[in-house]
């Protein structure tokens, strides 16, 4: 007889482990199957995000920013540091410690919530059965009233630049360099490519990013994207658009061959990061007789509440439609758990914030001007630069801006876009405002502390109606 649970979750990333914890909080018996192993071969909870994605990349971004400030900025504050040196292995060691602490924390949460962690591969079978193949031992059958698929995503590989784990790597490999490459190439100038490129650029590498699209950061409001590109290139990042990589050759260096509007080109680098997006990790997730419906790209088909075509089976996170964001997956996990328990869980896909953790940071929520123009939606916008805020000036972080777009007739906020210091935190105010269907006037009439970075949000809201105080409207 198969081992039975109320809920089986396949995948322990931010979507899966959050779903499991919420199910346990609601009184269900839960098992989580996850096959992830660390580089030392030990199983680890947290999926890509905690182990080789969001968390380690932010740890390295923070470390590299400290080094850059010591090298290039602190003297202007009257702080002189002589003989500063860079210890890359220690930087990587610290990153690993951050990851270990957080993944260990999830293990403790599982224990506290009486969640069973099954280490190995899970496959959905017919009639809500799950085949569990442990890392060691024989496979066995499990069953559950409800099954949640949350196996996440993995980097897309391209034939023109096959990974070797040493000189040509994906984003995970880029977090393991033991020394700073003199010349670093990055295929893809999206979120991950920019973040990884920024880390090694700050540490001294000469970084070139090759982006296939003709526009920079196409999902971002283009006024913000133009400002961001200008600031990145000022830092030394070489961003080339409209580049199609055709071949890589390895000798003493990695020779990257690509084509752009000027024809065939080549680039010599010491290391190459391939960062061209991610694909759902659904290979081998379900047997044929389970009849799980997926599309041609491998995404699991779900409705608005993340229910698949199979009764009692749900899918959340990177394996379903929508942005591949940890917080989006977590909220879907909570929604599914609450709906299983008979509550009215939901996710508002219109108010999911995005962040790029470069310096300056980029953050946005809602619609861009281009999207509103295409939809024929009447709007007005206002913007305000951080250079006019006292706190940003005092911090020596005066680059960037906040832009707010509101409906021309109702004044309801439709989108907020930022590039500048700590906008990963500032975007929460905009997200909350949109969740409550606030107007630009509502934000404009909300008192913001002085001096703070959030005053830029306040002034941008005032600017929508040409009322900004510290700007010539």
TrEMBL record:
Cofactor: FAD
Domain (FAD/NAD(P)-binding): residue spans on this chain: 5-333
Entries under NCBIfam families matching the protein: lipoamide_DH
Gene field: lpdA
SUPFAM superfamilies in the cross-refs: FAD/NAD(P)-binding domain, FAD/NAD-linked reductases, dimerisation (C-terminal) domain
Catalytic activity as recorded in UniProt: N(6)-[(R)-dihydrolipoyl]-L-lysyl-[protein] + NAD(+) = N(6)-[(R)-lipoyl]-L-lysyl-[protein] + NADH + H(+)
GO terms for MF: dihydrolipoyl dehydrogenase (NADH) activity
Note: The active site is a redox-active disulfide bond.
InterPro entries named in the record: Class-I_Pyr_Nuc-Dis_Oxidored, FAD/NAD-bd_sf, FAD/NAD-binding_dom, FAD/NAD-linked_Rdtase_dimer_sf, Lipoamide_DH, Pyr_nuc-diS_OxRdtase, Pyr_nucl-diS_OxRdtase_dimer, Pyr_OxRdtase_I_AS
Keywords from the named record: Cytoplasm, Disulfide bond, FAD, Flavoprotein, NAD, Oxidoreductase, Redox-active center
Cellular compartments annotated: Cytoplasm
EC number(s) per entry: 1.8.1.4
Free-text remark on how the cofactor is bound: Binds 1 FAD per subunit.
Name of the molecule in the record: Dihydrolipoyl dehydrogenase
PANTHER family hit by this protein: DIHYDROLIPOYL DEHYDROGENASE, DISULFIDE OXIDOREDUCTASE
Segments forming domain Pyridine nucleotide-disulphide oxidoreductase dimerisation: 352-461
Pfam families per record: Pyr_redox_2, Pyr_redox_dim
Family, as annotated: Belongs to the class-I pyridine nucleotide-disulfide oxidoreductase family.
């Amino acid at each position: 007889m198969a081992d039975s649970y109320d809920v089986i979750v396949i995948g322990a990333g931010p979507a899966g482990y959050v779903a499991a914890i919420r199910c346990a909080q609601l009184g269900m018996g839960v098992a989580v199957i996850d096959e992830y192993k660390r580089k030392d071969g030990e199983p680890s909870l947290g999926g890509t995000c905690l182990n080789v994605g969001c968390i380690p990349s932010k740890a390295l971004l923070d470390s590299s920013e400290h080094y850059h400030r010591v090298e290039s900025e602190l003297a202007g504050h009257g702080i002189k540091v002589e003989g500063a040196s860079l210890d890359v292995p220690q930087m990587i060691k610290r990153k690993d410690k951050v990851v270990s602490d957080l993944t260990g924390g999830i293990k403790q949460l599982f224990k506290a919530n009486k969640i069973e962690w099954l280490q190995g591969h899970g496959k959905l079978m017919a009639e809500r059965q799950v085949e569990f193949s442990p890392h060691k031992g024989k496979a066995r059958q499990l069953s559950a009233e409800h099954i949640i698929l949350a196996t996440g995503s993995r980097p897309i590989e391209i034939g023109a630049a096959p990974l070797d784990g040493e000189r040509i790597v994906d984003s995970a490999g880029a977090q393991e360099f033991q020394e700073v490459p003199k010349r670093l190439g990055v295929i893809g100038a999206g979120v991950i490519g920019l973040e990884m490129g920024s880390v090694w650029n700050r540490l001294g590498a000469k970084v070139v990013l090759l982006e296939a699209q003709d526009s920079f950061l196409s999902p971002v409001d283009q006024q913000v994207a133009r400002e961001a590109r200008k600031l990145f290139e000022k830092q030394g990042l070489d961003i080339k658009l409209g580049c199609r990589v055709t071949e890589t050759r390895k000798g003493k260096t990695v020779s990257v061959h690509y084509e752009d509007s000027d024809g065939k080109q080549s680039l010599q680098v010491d290391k190459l990061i391939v960062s061209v997006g991610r694909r759902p990790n659904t290979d081998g997730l379900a047997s044929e007789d389970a009849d799980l419906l997926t599309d041609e790209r491998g995404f699991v088909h779900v409705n608005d509440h993340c229910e698949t075509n199979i009764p009692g089976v749900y899918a959340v996170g990177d394996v379903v439609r929508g942005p591949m964001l940890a917080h989006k997956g977590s909220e879907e996990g909570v929604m599914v758990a609450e709906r299983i328990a008979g509550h009215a869980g939901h996710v508002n896909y219109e108010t999911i914030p995005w962040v790029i953790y470069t310096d300056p940071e980029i953050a946005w929520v809602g619609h861009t001007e281009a999207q509103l123009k295409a939809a024929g939606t009447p709007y007005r916008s206002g913007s305000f630069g951080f250079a006019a805020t006292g706190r940003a000036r005092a911090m020596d972080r005066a680059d960037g801006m906040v832009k707010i777009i509101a409906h021309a007739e109702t004044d309801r906020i439709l989108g907020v876009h930022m590039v500048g210091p700590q906008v990963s935190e500032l975007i929460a105010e905009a997200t909350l405002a949109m969740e409550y269907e606030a107007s630009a006037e509502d934000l404009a009439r909300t008192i913001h502390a002085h001096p703070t970075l959030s005053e830029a949000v306040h002034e941008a809201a005032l600017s929508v109606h040409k009322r900004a105080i510290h700007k010539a409207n």
